[in-house]
Each structure stands twice: as C-alpha cells, then as structure tokens.
Amino acid sequence: MLAMRVFVPLILACSALLATSLGAGSFSFAAETPAQTESASLTTPKQRLDALFADLKKERDADKARELANQIRVEWQDSGSATVNLLMQWADKAITDNKQAAALDILDQVITLAPNYVEGWNRRATLHYAMGNYRKSMSDINRVLAIEPRHFGALAGMAAILDASGKDELAMRAWEQFLDIYPADRKAQERLGELAEKLAGSKT
Q1: Which of 17, 21, 30, 129 is deepest in the core (most CB within 10 A)?
Q2: How many CB atoms lie within 10 A of CB 173?
Q3: How far apart are CA 24 and CA 132, in angstroms?
Q4: d(CA 10, CA 142)
Q5: Mean of the pLDDT values across residues 165-185?
Q6: Per-residue confidence at 58, pLDDT binned at 50, 70, 90?
C-alpha cells in the first residue's frame, strides 16, 4: 500500500495531461523480449519478483542491473495462462507486421481475459504511444502502475510523454521514481540530470 501511495500524486498530476494533444515522438517503452533465464523453481512469481527488485535496487553495475531487469521482464511477460500468452504472441506478430488495428483488438481481448495482467496494459500503452494516441497511452500507463507500481518501463513511458508535453517537473519526478527502482540505468540518470539543469536554469 505504501508503494501505491507514493505513485498516486504523480498519477493524479498527470490527469490534466490526458485532455491535451501531444506532438509525435519516437520513444518506446515496451518491455524488451530478453532471452529466457532460469529462475528458482521453489518460489512463487511474486517472491521471485520481490527478490529481483531488491537486487535491482542494490545493484550499481549497469550491465548486471540490465540482466536483473531482463529477468524481471521475463516474469512480467508470463501471464500464467497459455491462452493469454498465445494472444500476446499474436499481438506481437501483428505489431511486427504493421497491423496496429489488429494488434489493438488482440490486446483488448488480453485485457478482458486477464485484467490484472500487467503486460497486457503495458503493451497496449506502448502501441497507443506508437500510434500517436497519447491520452490513451497515459491512461494505460496509469493502469500498469496501479497493478505494479515498480514497473520501470511504464514509468519511462510516462516520463517520455510528460517530457514531450513540456511538463518538465512531472517528467523529472517520474524519472526519480524510475531511478528509485532501477538506480543503475544510465539513460535515466542522464535524462534526470538534464531536466534538473533545465529547471535550475529556468529559476535563475
């Protein structure tokens, strides 16, 4: 519950953005598809995720942290349902084939069948962003974070949309939340630094 309270102000602050139209961008925040890694067989998915996130928060080596992040993505991608996993494969194929409307239809089915499956919402958020549907993308990002407040991919997407809309302070807060979860990510560190300098310059 504490994690949820941490994210509520940021999500609420973004609500005004949902009524605005943003310029096109090229940022993608979809979970990458890493190679399957071996995980402990005697733990639940939640236990594995909690352990991975604890390690990610402590890790300062960028390469090792990336490996941990990829293992987290593997855990997120498995819905626990063979049907939903197959639909996600079909959605990915439709996206690859540039059939966005078909991909959206499939992802809508995924969300209907598994409303608590975080990657269904995240994949649709990414697709909406790629299609220029920024309000819908932000709405789906908020659903992702309601289910999994530690979803660094969704936070990166939120930061990108806020950044593109000129909401520098909110974008900086999103990157701060990202780095609290994934402190070794160099791109996030750089972008946070750039925003901090920009905001400091605007106040002088």
Answers
A1: 129
A2: 21
A3: 6
A4: 10
A5: 97
A6: very high
